[in-house]
Amino acid sequence: MITPYHPPVKYSVQIDKHKTSISLEPVFWDMLMKEAERLALPINALVAQIDAERIQADTPPGLASAIRVWLVSQA
């Protein structure tokens, strides 16, 4: 089992045919995969949805921060 205090790891994702990488702690990546499974969405599709929501904010955070906030708000 990986400790929840593991430093961020880079993961590759694709948003609308654009490849990018995000740095997330493994615990957040695991949470993201579980949410994608629960919603029956591919990881890339869920990340694209979160990305679309974050760019609507008055002061959009970075993608990794938006993913963390989105995950915490699902709890």
UniProtKB/TrEMBL annotation:
<dbReference type="InterPro" id="IPR038268">
    <property type="entry name" value="RHH_sf"/>
</dbReference>
<dbReference type="Pfam" id="PF13467">
    <property type="entry name" value="RHH_4"/>
</dbReference>
<feature type="domain" description="Ribbon-helix-helix">
    <location>
        <begin position="9"/>
        <end position="73"/>
    </location>
</feature>
<protein>
    <submittedName>
        <fullName>Ribbon-helix-helix domain-containing protein</fullName>
    </submittedName>
</protein>
<dbReference type="InterPro" id="IPR027373">
    <property type="entry name" value="RHH_dom"/>
</dbReference>
